[in-house]
Amino acid sequence: MKNIRIIPTLHIKGPNVVKPVHTEALRIVGDPKELAVRYYRQGADELMYLDIVASLYQRNFDFELLKSVSEDIFIPITVGGGIRSLSDIKNALRVGADKVAINTYAVSRPEFLREAALEFGSQCIVLYIEAKKKSEGKWEVYTDGGRESTGLDAIEWAKQAVGLGVGEILLTSIDQDGTRKGYDTKLTSAIASWAPIPVIAHGGAGNAAHMEEVISKGKADAVAVSSIFHYDDCTIGSVKEYLDAKGVAIRRIPQFH
Amino acid sequence: MASRITIVDYGVGNLQSLKKAFAHLGFDAIISEDAEEIRVSDAVILPGVGSFEAGMRGLKLRNLTEAVQHVAVHNRPMLGICLGAQLMLEQGHEFGVFDGLGIIEGEVVRFDADAVKEKIPEVGWNEVYPGTETSWEGSILVPGEKPRMYFTHSYIFKPSRKENILGLSSYGGTEFCSVIRKGNIYGCQFHPEKSGEAGLQLIRNFTQLI
Fold first, then answer.
1. Residue of B nearest to A167 (CA)
2. pLDDT surpasses 90 at B41
3. Which DSSP letter does residue A190 get?
4. Residues B199, B17 contacting (CB under 8 angstroms)
5. A98 in contact with B, Cβ within 8 Å
6. What is the DSSP letter of B142?
7. How many structural domains are present in chain B?
8. Does A168 contact B123 at a Cβ distance shorter than 8 Å?
9. Considering CB atoms only, which of B16, B50, B125 is closest to A45?
10. Residue A6: enclosing H or E segment and its boundaries?
11. In the beta sheet, which residues pair with residue A85?
């Protein structure tokens, strides 16, 4: 059986990890490096590192911060926020990223996804979709941290991106983000059920049962989690224990000495 | 004198995370695309992600194939990772048929999409267990353990000889070879540098071969 990945997510603003609500309102949570190391030691399967203002303000990504965060982390790190050139990707990889998540720039120039996949391999290129529900079974793609509507249908956009060679999809529900009321399972399923590549569900995790739901009903291949780990409401270990008991295959927590 | 560990830079993939892993273990691995530097190394790491053909092209473009084969012929410790390990075999079947380095007999083939009951590529953590005719005793893997490692791949090793199958894994109901070995030459389909403590342990064990 395939192992479901639990991916703690750091939303970065300036030097801090912040907690977004509906991808907007922010609260400072802590220090990126400290949190990254804590999650690594707790048994995180990967780490998601999203600079939430780089794209919005056309600001360049803080590569130095990423370098320091990734230093003592030996699991895959996906980096997103403001990536808009092949050299941005190269720089991110150089300072510790293994994959990049691309949203805004991919929407404005889809061909970039193909170029990036050819240059760095599909395994490196993650399509980052932020989607808002429009009607039953319809979601619209947003960019710039959920601020700009695009008119694109999320499912169609995912199909197009798969054709362009992306290796994974990070799928955020703007409606659920930060609410702790559960993932948008229907949105996840609407893409994960047919996508030939892994889909990472993101936005709305309030407890381990929400994760189990988006895995079993939403067909998620991985779950991205932020708030509840930041505030110690539960640990990666307790989530994995719960999922394991529910019959979800997970990677057991490695023992640290 | 400190051992010279060289990470071969042939234009594919992310070498920094490997260098970082060696640094964490107290080794200053150098990244090089120089054939002479590789030839005189005590140990060689052949990393890489991407397609088989692009990998071989990258090696040839820099005239590195002979240097890597030279290190292998002398049975100096060598660790291939993902594409780097695939290149150690004789032939790859990705976007056509291409010759590899031929260090270990066998070929590289795609996961059989009809047999594998999961998405391809495999992305994520998977267990590694011993091959049927090999022992982990004295190898870079720890006998008695079944480490979980991080994989991201669509292609798999298909060694001709069972004695070269050191580790196996199973994905979507299909068993495949995840670690190849011939003497001091090792190849992992997974990424030890991204596999947490289990991966670091493998790299640490590798450094003890030097």
1. B121
2. yes
3. H
4. no
5. yes
6. P
7. 1
8. yes
9. B125
10. strand A5-13
11. none
Percent of chain A with pLDDT over 90: 76
Indicate the DSSP class of residue B6: E
Structure tokens that stand for A90 in this block: 């190269």
Reported residue count of chain B is 210
CA A115 to chain B, closest CA, distance in angstroms equals: 14
Q: What is the DSSP letter of B194?
A: G
Chain B residues in contact with A45 (beta carbon < 8 A): 124-125, 150
Whether chain B has a CB inside 8 Å of the CB on A197: the answer is yes
Shortest alpha-carbon distance between residue A2 and chain B (Å): 7
Cα nearest neighbour of B154 on chain A: A123
- pLDDT of residue B125 exceeding 70, the answer is yes
Q: Which residues contact residue B46 at a Cβ distance below 8 angstroms, ignoring those fewer than 6 apart? A: B8, B68, B78, B79, B80, B81, B84, B85, B87, B88
Number of domains in chain A: 1
d(CA A215, CA A36): 24
Predicted confidence band at B49 (pLDDT cuts at 50, 70, 90)? confident
Catalytic option among B82, B153, B177, B188: B82
Q: pLDDT digit string (tens) for A34-59?
A: 999 999 999 999 999 999 887 666 66
Please answer yes or no on whether A198 and B152 come within 8 Å at the CB atom. no
Catalytic residue list contains B82: yes
How many residues are there in chain A? Answer: 257
Å from A185 to nearest chain B CA? Answer: 19
Give the gap in angstroms from C-alpha A184 to the nearest C-alpha of chain B: 22
Give the residue from chain A lying closest to B152, CA to CA.
A123
Paired tokens of B172: 């979507």
CATH of the domain at A71: 3.20.20.70
A254 assigned to some structural domain: no
CATH number of B149's domain: 3.40.50.880
pLDDT in the model for residue B35 = 98
State yes or no: is B191 an active-site residue.
Answer: yes
On whether residue A250 sits in a domain, the answer given is no
Domain encompassing residue A165: 5-245
- A252 inside domain: no
Q: Quote the ipTM score.
A: 0.92
| pLDDT computed for residue A209 by the predictor | 97
Nearest C-alpha in A relative to B123: A198
Task: Find the domain containing B197 and state its range.
Answer: 5-207
CA distances, A223 to each of A12, A239, B113 (Å): 19, 11, 25
Distance of CA B102 to the CA centre of its chain: 14
Which residues 51-80 of A are in CB contact (within 8 Å) with B? 70-72, 74-76
